[in-house]
Amino acid sequence: MTTHGEEAGSAGDAGSVADTPVRCDRPVRTNGRVGRVDDGAGQGGGRTVPQAAHNAASVPLVVDLDGTLIRSDLLVETFFHAVGDDPRNGLRLLPALLRGKAAFKAAIADAASIDASTLPFEQAVLDYIRRESALGRPVYLASASHADHVRAIADHLGLFTGWIASDGIVNLAGSAKAARLVDMFGQGGFDYIGNSKADLPVWAVARRCIAINVDGRTRGRIAARHPDAEHLAPTPPSWKRWHKMLRVHQYAKNGLVFVPLLTSHTINPGLILLALAAFVAFSFCASSVYIINDLVDLKSDRAHPRKRLRPLAAGLISPFAAIAVAALLLVTAFAIALAVGLNFTAVLLGYFLLTCAYSFSLKRKMLVDAIVLAMLYSIRVIGGSAAVGIWMSEWLLGFSMFVFTSLALVKRYTELSVRLDASLPDPSNRNYRVADLPIVATLAAASGFNAVTVFALYVSSDSVRQLYRHPTLLWMICPILMYWIARVLMLAHRRMMDDDPIAFALRDWRSCVCLCGIIAIMLAAS
User: Fold this and answer.
1) Which residues contact 524 (CB under 8 A, 6 or more apart)?
2) What is the pLDDT of residue 430?
3) 8 A C-beta contact, residue 198 and residue 142
């Protein structure tokens, strides 16, 4: 275990030798006694033990980190960051995991750093610490996270008398933390702020219990031992956060599963039901991957002007809750897929694996990321075809690839333009440079108008004459597509485009008019 700060115990232990490295930036007075401070060399620092406290200002305040001081969990964050930076880290961390949680945390700390300045701190806890510190009260940070990360946070805030944390040998959580704090301050010799059932052993030996964001069951167990426990004002939960994190508005993209059914001219209730099931399966699967992607991108999202407001980046939803929901959605998605059929299940599995590859690696490959995004859109069309058992036209697949590659490049253009306007450096999680804006726009335009060319060739083909009674009317769709693609590009250039052009189109009335016009023309041509 790693300890930084003044260590104190009972008067009878005064003069004993500490068994861990100790440092303290400043001595803290406890009941008229000043703790002995280690020289910083990390070898055999002395310690004294505080006398029984007779007033609150002399009792040390100990603060938990994960879920308490910050609205997140560093172990989860840094694990996904390490694997996101290099997927091979997942295999490299496995031997450390086999050696125990403490060794696993140390290995992750070596593989992934944190930026303390961007972490989502819990304002109620910060205010409490500052208020108590202003009264001259010693405040300690006690965390099961690794010492490297705890040190970075303590140094950034500059509010703590000292800190204790896990090292490569001891995992300072639960009972281990409680024993360490009793060794430092004595039974009932400190107040403790925590947030979960893992803190119950610490509250059991603390003088006073202060809690934040605890669940109902833990709150009941706290009340049984500490009827006078103080509960700090938590951030209230909101369904809107989950709605935003699951990207429910993005479900409209999964409407692509209906395209093969609509273009086949063989609609019946049974096929519609299968297409609806495919829609739900894709939606649930996509939401689970969005969560994984947000976990991988936490560090970079917090440095982004808009993405820092995402629920996970802002600490509005805990990583553990996010992981649990992602797993539930994924299991549900594949249960539905199996009910639809094995062919559709195979397509959905391919979609999931490709999205994971995108999240962990491919999105960092220049242009590969845009092509993969286009493939993910096209796979939805293929999935719809597999679900209803209708052969899909190669023309449709070609059109999909071109138009969705264009939209993916518009997405990258928008992200880069935000960085340019905010004078931010090149993105660290994308292999693009701000200077690439002109060529990205050119490629987006070329791909978009190629999609129109493919559609024109499709209208000229013999297969169209067999499906439509008035195929000539379909030519009217070409100028609508040209207008819409050109308008998307112009709005992106004017900085009037969302990060996601599909989401923008759903709110843009002109886009909706274009879509309705295309549907009306297709119905008239049938």
Assistant:
1) 470, 473
2) 78
3) no
